[in-house]
Design a protein that fits this description.
Blueprint (H helix, E strand, L loop, with lengths): L14 E6 L2 E12 L4 E14 L3 E4 L1 H10 L6 E3 L1 H9 L1 H11 L1 H17 L3 H9 L14 H13 L1 H10 L11 E10 L8 E2 L9 E10 L4 E9 L4 H12 L5 E4 L7 H9 L4 E4 L10 H4 L8 E5 L2 E10 L2 E8 H17 L6 H7 L5 E7 L2 H7 L12 H10 L1 H14 L4 E2 L4 H27 L8 H8 L3 E5 L2 E4 L4 H9 L7
Parallel strand pairs: 6-10, 6-16, 10-11
Antiparallel strand pairs: 1-2, 2-3, 3-4, 5-17, 6-8, 7-8, 8-9, 11-15, 12-13, 13-14, 14-15, 17-18
Length: 505
């Protein structure tokens, strides 16, 4: 397109000049490489202004309003505690996000993730929280708007491969022989009418509204989520597990740990066909279980045992057809269940009786698991030569791994209840993918805080939510253009010091 000489000085990188009805207009443009077409595609964006020979460049009033709406307001009192807590917990992740994705995008993502973590905010209210938080002095300092957040989330949603590469970096400091990765999934309702991934599907609550599914990998060593993937709501776990493992490249370290409702001959056959490792508990009335060893008077003479959380766990292994099984007996649990059943005979005689008690006598306190564990996982456990503790048998590894499922379930409960992430109104698949990534980062921060409370033996008094709420009361105020920390009680200082957070540094 021919442009007269006088208009040449107005040409700039990232812009395009168009002739419309004999007039010259300047637009912002962006470029993106299309992998399918194997070429760079130009996208014309918003109008910047008009160009005339007499007046030169005349900015568009709409564009000026747009920039003005993105500018952060001047705030002289800002919440400091949330940023200080989050940035301390996520120090390594913040550095790696910036290294992989660049400062600008990482900063916007970090701020929104922190707002999800602290306030469970939707996109439309993120700007207000951001501008009144001290993070705005470090992350996305110039502008932060609904569009900025949506565009950033969309970018992360469109670049899944880079997101996965970043997730892989989180495992780099954990030796292979010490890392045992668990897999599970959860559902999230989706009210969007414009998504192709939400569909009616089964979930444990028997809610058949449209939903999406989220597959997670959880590191037993790090005690935090290390991977997630969005799956169509009507796809089963078995069909998705193999692809998730392939994407993360942790095949020899992944064990799928299911709940008692998952077991079926078809599911087991599909998992065996995919060469997947699994640990699946059975209902006590399953015909595969052999309770005969527990019916003997001196059954303990023939059973083996190990100690788990100061409790004796008896066990015996056997095979029923193609199924490998282990039955565990927790005597502490057996006594509790026996007492509970006998007490119900008095209060609910229509459902409980002495005859029923006698039939269940050898079932109380038991857990039976059908399993298939990759030999490599067992071999990795045996590599710990410097560990002075006795070598764990495969039965103990399987039992402890199943018990770690509780940690996975806590994560899902946190995800849905604390982050308020069980219902999504997202209308764009890629924005939804990015939104899930922001929530994933928030979940990592939540678990890191949980781990510090656990280490400080404070979980009986405080939850991660309690600590986050207390951090919101810690502010900084600007006096003569200098930021000063607000007053903090000694009790608050001592509490945060116990979890290695210093507000006076």
């Amino acid at each position: 397109m021919y442009l007269p000489e006088w208009i040449q000085p107005f040409k700039e990188r990232g812009t395009e000049i168009k002739i419309i009805s004999g007039h010259y207009y300047k637009y912002a443009v962006s470029y993106k490489y299309d992998k399918e077409k194997k070429k760079t595609i130009k996208k014309t964006e918003h109008l910047l202004g008009k160009i005339t020979e007499k007046d030169g460049f005349v900015p568009s009033s709409k564009n000026e309003l747009r920039h003005k709406s993105e500018e952060l307001p001047q705030v002289d009192i800002k919440t400091f505690g949330v940023y200080n807590l989050f940035s301390d917990l996520m120090k390594e992740e913040i550095a790696s996000l910036k290294a992989v994705f660049g400062e600008e995008r990482a900063n916007t993502l970090l701020s929104f993730s922190m707002m999800r973590w602290a306030y469970q905010t939707p996109i439309k209210r993120a700007k207000d929280y951001h501008s009144h938080d001290f993070c705005s002095d470090f992350w996305a300092k110039k502008s932060f708007s609904d569009k900025t957040v949506s565009d950033t989330l969309k970018y992360f949603g469109e670049n899944r491969q880079n997101v996965v590469e970043w997730m892989k970096t989180q495992l780099k400091d954990v030796p292979d022989e010490q890392n045992f990765v668990l897999m599970d999934s959860t559902h999230a309702l989706s009210l969007s009418e414009n998504l192709a991934v939400n569909a009616k599907g089964y979930n444990p609550n028997f809610d058949f509204d449209k939903q999406i599914r989220l597959m997670y990998l959880f590191s037993a060593q790090m005690k935090q989520p290390i991977y997630y993937r969005l799956i169509n709501g009507n796809i089963t776990d078995v069909k998705s597990m193999s692809l998730c493992i392939n994407e993360m490249k942790v095949k020899n370290k992944v064990v799928f740990i299911a709940d008692k409702g998952f077991f079926s001959a078809d599911n087991i056959a599909m998992m065996n066909e995919e060469n997947l490792s699994y640990i699946i508990p059975l209902h006590r009335n399953n015909s595969l279980i052999d309770f005969a060893p527990l019916e003997k008077i001196n059954f303990k003479k023939e059973l083996k045992y190990f100690i788990f959380q100061e409790r004796i766990i008896w066990y015996y292994s056997y095979q029923n057809g193609d199924y490998k099984l282990i039955t565990f007996l927790d005597e502490s649990l057996r006594i509790k269940e026996e007492r509970d059943y006998l007490s119900r005979i008095e209060t609910h005689p229509e459902k409980y009786s002495r005859e029923g008690f006698d039939k269940k006598l050898n079932h109380f306190g038991t857990l039976t698991i059908v399993y298939r564990v990759d030999n490599q996982i067992n071999a990795d456990n045996k590599k710990k030569k410097k560990n002075p503790k006795p070598e764990k048998v495969i039965e103990q590894i399987i039992y402890e791994s199943y018990k770690q499922r509780n940690e996975v379930e806590v994560m899902f409960d946190s995800y849905k209840n604390y982050l308020d992430a069980d219902v999504s109104y997202m209308q764009n698949r890629y924005v939804l993918e990015g939104w899930l990534f922001a929530n994933f980062i928030a979940m990592i921060a939540y678990y890191k805080l949980y781990a510090r409370l656990l280490q400080a033996e404070l979980l009986s008094k405080y939850s991660p939510k309690d600590i986050i709420e207390q951090s919101k009361a810690i502010c900084k105020m600007k006096i003569r253009n200098q930021w000063h920390l607000s007053e903090i009680t000694q009790k608050t200082q001592r509490l945060f010091a116990k979890i290695q957070i210093d507000y006076l540094k």
